[in-house]
UniProtKB/TrEMBL annotation:
SMART domains: PLDc. This is Phospholipase. PROSITE patterns: PLD. The keyword Repeat applies. One of its GO terms (biological process) is phospholipid catabolic process. Residues 137-164, 352-379 form the PLD phosphodiesterase domain. One of its GO terms (molecular function) is phospholipase D activity. SUPFAM superfamilies: Phospholipase D/nuclease. It comes from Geodermatophilus sabuli.
Amino acid sequence: MFDENSGPVATEDLLVAGETCWRVERADQHAVFIDAADYFAALKGAVLRAQRRVLFIGWDFDPRIRLDPRTSGRRSRDRLAQVLEDAVRDNPELEIGLLQWDLGMIVALNRGLAPIVLLNRRTPDRLTMTVDTHHPIGGAHHQKIVVIDDCLAFAGGIDVTADRWDTSEHLDRHPHRRRPRTHHDRGPWHDVTSLVSGPAARAIGDLARERWESGTGKRLEPVTDAQLCWPPEVEPFLTDVDVAISRTRPEHGGQSLVHEIELLWLAAVAAARRTVYIESQYFANRRIAEAIADRLREDDGPEFVVVNPETAYGWLDEKAMSPARAKLLAMLEDADVHGRFRIYFPVTAGRRPVYVHAKVLVVDDRLLRIGSANLNNRSMGLDTECDLSIEARADDPRRDELAAAVTGLRDRLLGEHLDVPPEEVAAALAACDGSLVEAVEQLRRPTGRSLVPIDPPELRGVDRVLAETELLDAERTPNRWQRVRRSFRPRLRRR
């Protein structure tokens, strides 16, 4: 589609294998977890029911965290390390492997964690925690994947580590939202991940086993004889639906660059007709911001609503990402001649900022993407990432059902932030003639839970230099925006 020699060719689908995604596979069932409380509880049950193999592929793990603190019972039996040990002890055929980014392990050690305890259990041959050192300098293995028996796969933005657990109520204080060692309340945390079964899960299993072999040198065969393993407590979001897997894989160790996630972002911006809803930990990718700016200048372009955290997490991230966000928002303010761009951060009932770690993209009633990739440069070309998407294609006989699911999830997310039911979001949209910007502005409140506009600071000194040079988050991919835009331009007309 974006071949250098043949030039761009218009396409009717956003999800194109080999371009904007790696593979498109059928999911027997598909679920979405908003915030980590329900995800961790479902993960615990799935691990304990696993038959042959569980593979964790992650940026960070903390074996001390509790997975389901809302249930009764001994706290120690609910901790990740104990759950894993119980699983292999109770099932002599089960193997569990955890593959973690090597620098993430150093961070873990600095916060007082000794993950080596996992290797000292009574079944070290069937419970393995190891680190992956195969990445470019400065790069991270940022995927958040758990595959169970190659028939069930979790993938999205939630790390199985400390500071992630929270409910969608995002209380100012929560008794279960505690750090393992200090027991301090980290604060409210918003996140999203997804779950699939069937061929889509087997495809993610292929990706996880590839990562395991790359990181450890050991090849694992697929699990082929496991029974159906959908968690009985999880209600599917959709059934019998195509799911696309998009990746970022940096050029390293003889492997070529894969930047399907970036191409999907650009295609989505190019194809959007009415609304683009974004949740991301950062807003620091110049190329995508420039694509958004192009659409904002159009007389009949789409609206963009972005939900970010108020500030980045940690000093280094703040220095790398906040100046970049301020610079890009200034550019978008100049481009937004029709008033179609807004960026907010959520707050609790007591107006405490909610940290946004989710990575979600919703385009019109057509595309839903949930993954590990942030809206920054490193997620597009330096780190390893995995995103899952569903598309309500025009020629799909179930298009209306899929479209309703896509917009329903968007309205649920906005309803969580605005403290209203999703039906009220949908009603506000209808009353505002489909304007997402006007609907959010109508529902925002000056007190209690709500969304607050982000007012970036004026860049000065070191921050200005960092923003101009992109020193801490450089671009690493070829610019395909104009080519992608021409490919998807036939779909710019509104329905």
